[in-house]
């Protein structure tokens, strides 16, 4: 069966999964559901996001370098369970979506909370691997970033573009390579902001909060609403390409303008685990 015809056969089961996720995360959520044929054909250079309600965002995402899912390298896009997944090669495969105020969680003076959830299967490399980011990776041109460090730690970082400072939090343990994992970063401004912003970040792996270490910046004020685009699998092509697989469809990268609780993250993990047909 071709890659172009494989996707529709599973899409009929996706509607209930989207509904399950919306019921867990609330109205401000948006998913990047590549591989779902209702949001973009495997042969298309673009796909559209899926929002929970009008407070989410319907955005057009574009594969870089004129790629399509059908022209991704080896291994070809496939399904794990009923979920479309794509293997990113770590060199030139990524997607971007235009700047929109929806993606910005700071105004230069104060920050607002945000939650990001992804399903990935990372490749162990010596490179920093950006999973999802608004910006270019540079302190002066970015807002936030979720990635895997050179030592395979999960990292969520905040950027004060005017001051060029970057508070962040790293997991204490490495993320396992070679298997599917749910990763989540929650930034709760009631737990830390300004000089203690990284204290407000909680990291999750497979539905559970993990031990992590905050690195704060005394001069940090807030993220800024920049004109930078959002990238999946890279820092807008500036480097730090993601190497490994990312889930799409209903388990595509999830962005929520709210604090997801530990219970919500755990519920999302169970929904995703079943959809990917992973062992309990």
Walkthrough of the structure:
The chain is mainly β. Helix content is 12%, strand content 33%. The protein contains three helices and 19 strands. A hairpin with a 6-residue loop joins strand 9 and strand 10. Helix 2 (14-25) runs antiparallel to helix 3. The radius of gyration is 17 Å and the shape is globular.
Number of helices: 3
Shape: globular
Give the ordered list of helices and strands.
HHEEEEEEEEEEEEEEEEEEEH
**Biggest sheet character:** 10 strands, antiparallel
Estimated structural class: mainly beta
Rounded average pLDDT? 93
How many angstroms does the end-to-end distance come to? Answer: 29 Å
- Kindly estimate the percentage of residues that lie in beta strands according to DSSP: 25-35%
List the main descriptive attributes of the protein structure presented here:
280 residues, mainly beta, 10-stranded antiparallel sheet, 9-stranded antiparallel sheet, 3 helices
Overview in brief:
The chain is mainly β and 280 residues long.
Strand and helix layout:
Layout: H1 3-11, H2 14-25, E1 29-32, E2 46-48, E3 50-51, E4 60-63, E5 78-80, E6 83-89, E7 95-97, E8 114-122, E9 129-135, E10 142-148, E11 153-158, E12 168-174, E13 181-187, E14 201-205, E15 208-209, E16 212-215, E17 230-232, E18 243-247, E19 253-256, H3 262-275
Antiparallel strand pairs: 1-3, 1-19, 2-4, 4-7, 5-6, 6-18, 7-17, 8-13, 8-18, 8-19, 9-10, 9-17, 10-11, 11-12, 12-16, 13-14, 14-15
Helix pairs in contact: 2-3
């Amino acid at each position: 069966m071709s890659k172009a015809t494989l996707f529709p056969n599973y899409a009929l089961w996706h509607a209930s999964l989207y509904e399950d996720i919306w019921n867990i995360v609330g109205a401000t959520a948006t998913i990047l559901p590549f591989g779902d044929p209702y949001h973009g054909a495997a042969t298309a250079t673009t796909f559209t996001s899926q929002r929970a309600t009008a407070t989410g965002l319907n955005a057009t995402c574009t594969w870089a370098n004129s790629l399509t899912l059908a022209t991704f390298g080896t291994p070809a896009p496939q399904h794990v369970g009923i979920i479309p997944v794509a293997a990113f090669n770590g060199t030139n495969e990524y997607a971007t979506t235009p700047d929109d105020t929806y993606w910005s969680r700071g105004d230069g003076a104060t920050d607002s909370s945000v939650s990001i959830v992804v399903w990935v299967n990372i490749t162990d490399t010596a490179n920093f691997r950006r999973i999802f980011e608004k910006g270019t990776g540079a302190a002066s041109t970015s807002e936030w970033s979720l990635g895997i460090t050179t030592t395979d730690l999960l990292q969520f970082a905040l950027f004060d573009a005017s001051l060029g400072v970057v508070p962040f939090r790293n997991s204490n343990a490495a993320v396992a390579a070679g298997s599917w994992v749910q990763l989540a970063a929650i930034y709760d401004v009631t737990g830390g902001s300004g000089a203690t912003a990284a204290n407000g970040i909680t990291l999750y792996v497979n539905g559970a909060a993990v031990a992590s270490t905050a690195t704060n910046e005394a001069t940090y004020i807030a993220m800024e609403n920049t004109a930078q685009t959002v990238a999946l699998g890279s820092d807008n092509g500036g480097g730090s390409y993601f190497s490994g697989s990312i889930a799409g469809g209903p388990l595509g990268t999830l962005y929520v303008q709210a604090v997801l609780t530990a219970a919500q993250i755990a519920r999302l993990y169970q929904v995703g685990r079943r959809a990917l047909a992973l062992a309990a």
